[in-house]
Design brief:
Blueprint (H helix, E strand, L loop, with lengths): L1 E4 L2 H9 L2 H4 L4 E4 L9 E4 L1 H4 L9 H12 L5 E4 L7 H8 L3 E3 L6 H16 L2 H10 L17 E5 L3 H12 L3 E5 L12 E2 L4 H4 L5 E4 L25 E5 L8 H9 L3 E6 L19 E3 L10 H17 L4
Parallel strand pairs: 1-2, 1-3, 3-4, 4-5, 6-7, 6-9, 7-8, 9-10, 10-11, 11-12
């Protein structure tokens, strides 16, 4: 018998997916009052809700406390692509196996990264400003660069990077790729390891961070990056990876010097972003509250992936 702790909504979704029918008498779906019996747990998006790694809602805190207090817990699966939050480190330290859902939200994240890029590259930020000021000032053709004249570096070549690369290529943007392995990709684009970042970032128009957080990617954009940039070709930045991949102080310094023109940021070193953070006041930046992967299709993807793991767990293939 697998005693599985999950939220009320998670239990409903697992029932709808036919889990109790598929394994009658072998899976018990538990709520928080029964958490002490849990062997496994499913963390769905509603468990985390508005919580961040720094600030937990009471509901999230209660679920996390139940996980840490369950004496027989041996497996936790999360809806998230990454497992760098403190709760996962604490669980692993207890010997709990933590599995995740990489790529479940890849389509949404890639689309959001593309939207942030198009918002600035197609000058929609200027149109929005005119609308707010009720001002009509059509742009000249030479004020808007054709996308086919742009070059970009995609930092990370997982499910998000591949989808984003396909979209950018379709729009005519020439792409390079930095990835952990540095191995060539089937598209034939220039490819290297993250160590090449400092050289390539000064040779392109846009950089897209879609990589996992790792020792190789933490603060990849930092104060030393500024020496590689050129005010004659100011950079555009999109970060839908992790906030710690980009040093925000260095990014603001680059903007102040005319080395970075625009940035779309969905993730931040501290979340929620403090109200007095200078990023809020930069009119050339677009910020969103860690929502790039938000989509009504994600939950079904996560449940499908979890059931795939259940098959191996319960049918002896693990």
């Amino acid at each position: 018998m697998l005693n599985l702790l999950c939220s009320e909504r998670g239990r409903a979704e697992l029932r709808q997916a036919g889990v109790p029918r598929r394994w009658p008498g072998r899976v018990a779906l538990l709520g928080l009052p029964e958490a002490g019996r849990a062997d496994a747990a499913l963390i769905t998006r509603d468990v985390v809700g508005a919580s961040t790694d720094d600030v937990l809602t009471p509901e999230t805190a209660a679920f996390y406390e139940a996980l840490l207090a369950a004496p027989g817990l041996r497996w936790v699966h999360t809806y998230a692509s990454g497992t760098d939050r403190r709760i996962y480190a604490a669980l692993r330290a207890r010997g709990v196996r933590v599995t995740n859902s990489p790529g479940a939200n890849a389509e949404a994240v890639a689309q959001t990264a593309l939207a942030g890029f198009l918002y600035f590259s197609r000058q929609l930020h200027r149109a929005r400003e005119q609308q707010l000021q009720q001002r009509w000032e059509p742009l000249r053709h030479d004020e808007v660069r054709a996308l086919r004249h742009l070059e970009a570096v995609i930092v990370g070549w997982g499910a998000v990077g591949r989808r984003l690369g396909a979209c950018l290529s379709m729009l005519g943007v020439r792409c390079r790729v930095l990835r952990h392995s540095g191995e060539p990709i089937e598209e034939g684009w220039p490819t290297d390891t993250y160590a090449r970042f400092r050289q390539w970032v000064g040779e392109v128009d846009w950089v897209f961070f879609v990589c996992p957080l790792s020792p190789a990617t933490e603060s990849l954009f930092n104060i030393d990056t500024l020496s590689a940039l050129d005010a004659g070709r100011p950079l555009g930045v999109v970060n839908v990876a992790r906030g710690r991949v980009v040093d925000a102080e260095a990014l603001l310094a680059a903007h102040a010097r005319g080395l970075v023109r625009h940035a779309y940021l969905d993730t931040f070193r501290a979340e929620p972003l403090p109200a007095d953070d200078p990023l809020w006041r930069c009119r050339d930046f677009l910020l969103s509250p860690h929502m790039a992967g938000t989509s009504d299709g994600n939950r079904a993807e996560v449940i499908d992936r979890f059931i795939g793991l259940l098959v191996r767990e319960l049918d002896g293939e693990a």
